[in-house]
Design a protein that fits this description.
alpha/beta, seven-stranded mixed sheet, 7 strands, about 30% helix
Length: about 210
Amino acid sequence: MTGSGTPTGYFDTMYRDADDPWHLTERWYEQRKYDLTVAALPLPRYRRAFEPACSVGELTRRLAPRCDAVLACDRVASAVRTARSRTAEFPHVAVERMTVPDEWPEGAFDLVVLSEVLYYFEPAQLDALLARTVASLEPGGTLVTVHWDHPVPEHRSTGTGVAAVVGATAGLHPVADHREDDFVLQVHQRAGHDGQPPASPAAREGLV
C-alpha cells in the first residue's frame, strides 16, 4: 500500500519494525474487504493482472486463482520480500520492486487493481497514475479501486475523494459502486473495441 506522493521514509519506517505493519493478514476487516474486492470482479477469469502497491501480498493471494498471470509490485523492499514469500505457491505470480507511476510495466493488462494506494498521491501524480492505468488496460479491461474512507494524516484524500477522481477519468465506464462506513469499492471497465461499454455479467449469459 505504497505510492510516490507520500515520502518514502514514511513507508520505510512503517515496515522497519514489522513485516505487516497494517496487520493485513490478521484483521477480519481486511480479510472481508479483500474477499469483497475479488467477488466484485465482473469476469470469472483474467489473462494478466497488475496490482501496484501490493504490500505483503494478501490481496495478491486472492487474485492468483482468478488470473492466468499476476504482476504485483511495491516500492518497499521488505514488503516485496514478504509478498514473494506469501505467493510462492503460485508460479504465475511475480512480485517486483517498483514505484508507480514513474515506473510502470510494459504490456497490456485486462485487470488492474488499485487497493489502498491512490490517496497517497498528490493530484498531478494521481492524474498521471490513472492515465497510465487507462492506457495499459486492454479494451474491455477491468479497473478495481478500493480505499479506506476515514481521514488519515498521511493520506491526501479519502475513499470518497478518490472515487470522485476515478469516476471523472476519461475512458472508464462504471460497473459497480459499493460503499460502507469504512471504505469505498468501485469497479470500472474500459470501453470495448467498438467503443461501447462491456456487457454486464447477466448480459453475457443472456439473462437480459
